[in-house]
Amino acid sequence: MFDVIIIGAGAMGSAAAYHLAKDKRRVLLLEQFGIGHTRGSSHGESRIFRYAYPQLSYAQFAMRCKPMWRELEAEAGETLLRDTGGLDFANEPAAFAEVNEVAQSLAAAGGAYEILDRAALARRFPQFTLGADAMGVYSPNAGVLNATRCVLAMSSLAARRGAVVQENEAVRDLIPHQNSVEVVTDAGRYTAAKVIVTAGAWVNTLLGRVGIKLPVRVSQEQVVYFTPRHADGFMPGAFPIWIHHRAKGDHAYGFPIMGRPGAKIAFHHDGNFVDDISRYTATPSEAVTARLREYIRTHIPELDGAAFDPTACLYTTTPDESFIVEVAANAPNVIIGSPCSGHGFKFAIGVGRALADLAG
Question: Which tens digits make up the pLDDT trace of 222-235?
């Protein structure tokens, strides 16, 4: 018997376990694969951290999360969030509105930022090939979270405080009772007053057991590393994390060189949908790598070197790309944590706190 069982030990589930264990709750954290596995949405050495959001609520939430990440770092005794600065830019007037909304949101939230015209962009960031009307917003508070290390730190600190962490144990059924929920796995049966479901792309597979289907769609996304012609121009300090806002919505984003001999880039919401998660293989697509190569040749030509380590991950996206963090309407002992819609990792430490609070 536990106070809370958490199903799914990715970013959100590990964060919930970390907070609940600090709250001295009896916690069981279940993961169908290994902790830090590479089949979902919470792996790799880099995820963007930023305040720079068009939506004020997300900018404010990110500001609340940053000191929580710093606290986790102190407890774990390792660097998890590295400041690099961040650049949001657009090359075409049709995409300027969203970049301007980033600036307006940062102003309203009290975040530091600079608006850069084309001349300033070219001077500060000559790595990019810019359009005649390019403009951007630079935010010094952006940085990079080490995703795998964050998940391992949160789950291990939870275990250190008494949480039971069991990996390679898939949940097969959820059985709600009046004041508890029974969880059935391949290894046995467990009971808790509350269950938190943070199962990422597998969320509807589990919630279907209690008659719930979330309005989410799963897609396979892909990052690729490219070796620059001159590495110095792509190191932290010279090259920020960046987001290229494009009018058709197919934004591109990337990172400086961190941990590997190349810079990571990707397209955001690339549209390769996974209709049956049970058949997901995490196999990278050569076509996506080729399109990223074409993008680089047009926009970051100095990065047009060898491509390596194409890596797949999953987005589980709601129609408006907002998060679902709530108590299930028809199962009040079941709590749903279903970010990320492709932009949630930076908020994991805060979402975990919210899920812990909902679990009482």
Answer: 999 999 999 999 99
